[in-house]
Design a protein that fits this description.
The structure is a single chain. The protein has helices at residues 9-16, 42-57, 77-91, 100-106, 120-137, 154-163, 188-201, 217-227, 258-262, 265-283, 292-304, 314-317, 441-445, 452-462, 471-490, 507-512, and strands at 32-37, 65-71, 110-114, 143-147, 176-180, 207-209, 241-249, 318-321, 323-324, 326-328, 331-333, 351-356, 368-373, 380-387, 406-412, 416-424, 432-440, 499-500. By secondary structure, the chain is α/β, with parallel strands linked by helices. It folds into two domains: 31-181, NAD(P)-binding Rossmann-like Domain (Rossmann fold); 214-388 and 470-512, 2-Layer Sandwich (Dihydrodipicolinate Reductase, domain 2), CATH 3.30.360.10. An eight-stranded mixed sheet has the order 8-12-13-7-14-15-16-17. Strands 3-2-1-4-5-6 form a six-stranded parallel sheet. The chain has a two-stranded parallel sheet with strand order 9-18. The protein is globular and about 80 Å long. The N and C termini lie far apart (62 Å). Residues 1-15 have low confidence and may be disordered. The structure holds NADPH dihydro-nicotinamide-adenine-dinucleotide phosphate.
Length: 519
């Protein structure tokens, strides 16, 4: 009989589909045990567990792998496995539900410790479990601790890891790393206090502060757009750029996270981390290499060039809002103050916008407008670079508006890049109209980018810190927004609620910038 060496159909498709050229399988992660503190919570079931399972199905998890859940809810190991299966049935991507031999082989590497986070004994039990995992699953004494609990519990867990000899210094045979979910503190002071706790136990190269926005493929492509092409860099500066808008808008409200959101607000929840990180990628200088620290040094330099506003200037460079009742997708929805866990007179902002200046040679005088909000007209994250208007009008009928060129980096839900330029409308007259050159990842590569948590978890297991934030940049980001937080907290906004759910946001946002791109 003839022996065949044909590849599986999916691999053949990748070879013959020219759009998929250059898309490679990821490098397999290091053998390790991963411990999820907060494994009974929302983030674990909706994001983290499906990401781990997808990494397993895509062959990126190493053969030596074990997962330990650690939380207060009571589960035996078997109950936890059942729980994980049921959550994967609901949240794993289509075509990747847990079943068959792959699941049967994976389930035994899941285990659980019902724990009181204040009991040293439970952390000692964890150490014993990790030693057992090394023998049973070949996890090579490598340990990844993931803090998926409320931030108030982070310091206690880190301290307990040290007391139970689960810190990097006590692990001579392998590596020990920690992934810390956002928010990293709730203001400048608390973030510094958290960092002090972290530093007592972990070196900076062991710490992976997660901002899942950085794991999104279009966000990573900002650097490729800028530094793998020659045409943008010469015009990427104050001589050609009029302004930059960065938007992260959501259609949903606060859902069942009222008590969390009351103490957060849009500025802390989105601008301090996601939106400022996008700004850094747009504004940074070319790094000397693609090493994690070369890139993170440049991001740090961008934040160093942003002067925190003076208290007196806050009202002029910022806008805040809070949604009232409105209509979303044809349905009536309640206002923020009517949501569960929210005070009836709450002063928490669900919309925040800032105008930021970067005081350096490249960007002096170019305003960066940042906005984020809940219950807006549309879910969209994008960066809009608007170029300067033409210096002299030559074309177009007198009634034609000649719009400036605009580069739109689309992050979600669409993923791609679009360039707006002016073209002559076909016909005898010389009408000019804006048109778009539109690149879309899905059609361009025949490939939808994997969820951010997949990429970030795999990077943490591989020891690649490029997409994680370094403490010096986190501290500066808090310094930049600290005066705004201060002023907003100490002055009640009597106009709240000042925008209807499902709208374009508050009027105050348009006073800051009248031509925000329409949501
Ligand atoms: P949940 O409240 O759903 O879950 C928190 C987990 O922590 C549960 O397992 C809970 O255990 C445990 N926990 C809560 N309080 C304590 C406590 N006092 N002592 C010990 N354990 C405790 O939160 P999320 O999963 O939504 O969020 C977890 C982290 O991830 C937070 O820092 C959040 O800001 C961040 N995050 C969440 C996102 C999301 O989409 N959910 C998105 C981005 C970040 P048990 O219930 O068993 O008591």
């Amino acid at each position: 009989m003839l022996e065949t060496t044909a590849s599986p159909p999916s691999q053949n498709a990748e070879r013959t589909n020219p759009l998929r050229a250059g898309i490679e399988s990821d490098r397999i992660a290091d053998p390790c045990s991963i411990v999820f503190f907060g494994a009974s919570g929302d983030l674990f079931k909706r994001m983290l567990l499906p990401a781990i399972w997808t990494l397993r199905t895509r062959g990126i998890l190493p053969a030596g792998f074990a997962l330990v859940g650690f939380a207060r809810t009571k589960f035996s190991d078997d109950e936890f496995r059942e729980y994980c299966k049921s959550q994967l049935d609901e949240f794993a991507p289509e075509g990747m539900k847990p079943q068959g031999e792959l699941w049967e082989k994976f389930a035994p590497c899941l285990s659980y410790i019902t724990a009181d986070f204040k009991q040293l004994g439970h952390f000692q039990q964890l150490r014993k479990r990790l030693d057992e995992n090394d023998k049973a699953f070949g996890t090579a004494s490598n340990r990844l601790f993931y803090l998926a609990t409320p931030p108030s519990v982070f310091p206690g867990i880190i301290d307990m890891l040290r007391r139970a000899n689960l810190d990097p210094r006590s692990n001579e045979r392998g590596w020990t790393r920690i992934v810390i979910e956002k928010p990293f503190g709730i203001d400048l002071e608390s973030s510094r206090a958290l960092q002090k706790t972290v530093e007592r136990v972990f070196g900076e190269h062991d710490v992976y502060r997660i901002d899942h926005y950085l794991g999104k493929e279009p966000v990573q492509d900002i650097m490729a757009l800028r530094f793998a092409n020659t045409i943008f860099e010469p015009i990427w500066n104050r001589n050609y750029v009029q302004s930059v808008q960065i938007t992260s808008a959501e259609k949903i409200g606060i859902e069942d996270r009222g008590s969390y959101y009351e103490n957060a607000g849009a500025l802390r929840d989105m601008i301090q981390n996601h939106v400022l990180n996008l700004l850094a990628l747009v504004a940074m200088e070319p790094p000397a290499s693609s090493e994690a620290d070369a890139i993170r040094n440049e991001k740090f330099k961008v934040f160093s060039a942003i002067a925190p506003p003076r208290h007196d200037d806050v009202m002029a460079m910022s806008a805040r809002g809070q949604y009232g009742p409105g209509i979303v997708d044809g349905e009536k929805v309640p206002g923020y103050r009517q949501e569960q866990g929210v005070a009836p007179q709450s002063n928490t902002e669900t919309f925040a916008a800032l105008r930021i200046g970067i005081d350096n040679w490249r960007w002096a005088g170019v305003p960066f407008y940042l906005r984020s909000g809940k219950r807006l007209a549309k879910k969209i994250s994008e960066i809009v670079v608007t170029f300067k208007p033409i210096p002299h009008r030559l074309y177009g009928e007198s009634t034609d508006a000649i719009e400036p060129n605009m580069l739109v980096i689309k992050i979600e839900p669409d993923e791609g890049i679009a360039l707006r330029w002016e073209a002559k409308v076909p016909g005898p007259k010389s009408h000019i109209r804006s048109v778009f050159m539109d690149f879309n990842y899905g059609t361009g590569f025949g490939f939808h980018s994997p969820p951010a948590y997949e990429r970030l978890l795999a990077d943490a297991m591989r020891g690649d810190q490029t997409l994680f934030t370094r403490w010096d940049a986190v501290e500066l980001a808090w310094e930049i927004i600290a005066p705004v937080l201060d002023v907003w907290q100490n002055t009640k906004d009597f106009s709240f609620p000042n925008y209807a759910a499902g709208s374009q946001g508050p009027e105050t946002g348009f006073r800051l910038l009248h031509d925000w791109r329409r949501l």
